[in-house]
Amino acid sequence: MDDRMKQSLDAIFRPRSVAIVGASNNRERWGYGTMLNMLEAGYRDTLYPVNPNEQQVQGVRCYPSISDVPGEIDLAVIVVNAAAVPVVIRECIRKKVKGGIVITAGFAEVSTEGAELQKSLAEEAKQAGFYFVGPNCWGIWSSEANVNTLFWDLPPKGPISFVSQSGSLGEYLYIATQRCGYGIDKFASCGNQACITFNDFLEYLGDDLATRVVIGYVEDVGDGRRFLEIARRVSAEKPLLIYKAGTTRAAARAARSHTAALVGNDSIFDAACRQAGAIRWHDFMEIFDMAEALCYQPLPRGNRVAVVSSAGGFCVTAAEACSRMGIELPEMSDEAQAMLRGHMRGFAPPPVNPIDCIARKSNESYIDILDVVARQDYIDGIIATPHLGRFSRTTKPEDMIRRIKLAESISSIPERYGKPLVCANEHELKGPVYEIYKSKHIPFFDNPGDCAKAMYALVKYSEIRRRKA
């Protein structure tokens, strides 16, 4: 990556000073929300609202122009109308602002003239070393610097980073974080990619130490050869999950009107992902489930998984979901089955795999069963359904303590055996026992299919790492 572009991206994601050009006190203006989001995100460094018609914006001293700002500026967030954008960009160049975000729309996505203006502005900015995100984007979220230009409520902080050629899909990201508590380190909405492309973001996040898993939503990769090179390099260090849109004629037409994307051949892109080691998936929300498992769970040595549940139906459906994704369920050895029967009543089903332990001798026997399974060399990962249990005013203290100890023991399996554990529970995922599992980063889902998909991601990335070794 060009040193000047890296300097711009560092300034965008870790700015020590931010100017919001177009900041407003008018709730109807986009600049009002941008300023408010920055304040409510807890940005602690210097913030400069810029608006020639205001003395203060939301309680912060305002300046008439970028040129009037007294200090140095790392990041300029531009939310003025399209006609004013060229003037602001040239002011940023003269001020030696390091990086920018142009949220304003009205360029390549609307007309030929807009495309020509966008191209000339980008060339001028790049020559000066002022690389900007956009135009026609929602901007970024950076948990490291508390920079937020798009979320009304903040997502939890964590090690997943997401780069998207759609700003609005940041909303889906937010929904996923709230539904399952996923932690986000960085989000970037690419927009029209005049200066900084999807590939540039991938390369930057691939080198970012705070990012453990990279997710990409792409409509047009632009330079396919460079995408292949970067994806190969990123996936050698951390999982790269890709959702590619524009695979149908109608979707391609929508992509062109959305961000002026030129959508390429889908089968070629699919082959490129396989060659590079990127994991492509066709359900956007499920990608976040996969990412959470990849962030924290140990990688399996192979694709051999055991399903352990006290629900026979879960055993059947989980086994079917795994088999459809190429995950094997090897039969337990005679020796292991004998040990498992020691923790079950006489009328229990044969513990072959899946292992239906509805007839276990006690709740404590569940952890004994899991330990037996985890010790087997031919088992690389486990899908299980531990009982969460609800605490109420009538729950006895000794029962609370017993449930907590069981949760602590089960959630320690990945650490003790070096094998991934993916869990499910049919009830609402909340309560003290659930929080113990979450503190150990055990992924939990409400159905067997999602468990199988999360395990598939772990198996797939493990294969990729072995292939690259």
UniProtKB/TrEMBL annotation:
Ranges where the CoA-binding domain occurs: 12-107
InterPro entries for this protein: Acyl-CoA_Synth/Transferase, CoA-bd, NAD(P)-bd_dom_sf, Succ_CoA_lig_flav_dom, Succinyl-CoA_synth-like
Keyword set, alphabetical order: ATP-binding, Ligase, Nucleotide-binding
Signal peptide positions on this chain: none
The protein's name: CoA-binding domain-containing protein
Gene Ontology MF terms in the entry: ATP binding; ligase activity
Xref: Pfam families: CoA_binding_2, Succ_CoA_lig
SUPFAM superfamilies to which the protein is assigned, alphabetical: NAD(P)-binding Rossmann-fold domains, Succinyl-CoA synthetase domains
